[in-house]
Amino acid sequence: MGWGRGENAEHRAVGYLVVAECDQDDCERQIDRGLAYVCGGMHDGGEQGCGGYFCDGHLFFLMDNGKESPGHQLCPACSEQWVEEQQDG
User: Fold this and answer.
1) Beta 67-74 vs 60-64: how paired, if at all?
2) CB 37 within 8 A of CB 53
3) What pTM does this model have?
């Protein structure tokens, strides 16, 4: 069972059957709005992400001492924020 098509909290169409472009400014790569492309690992962003949908060139898996970040996969802006928080903490 999966999320083929649905809506997130902002009433945005989401799911792996929803064809879209990367949410990064000036990027026109075609993706879907499934979990593989969402910042934060969940459709509304989880605890660390923004919930935007990004191509593999704009979605990063961050590591902290060999462990995945709490958000798992993050966009450039959320990645930067997470790294800053790790340096401050």
Assistant:
1) antiparallel
2) yes
3) 0.85
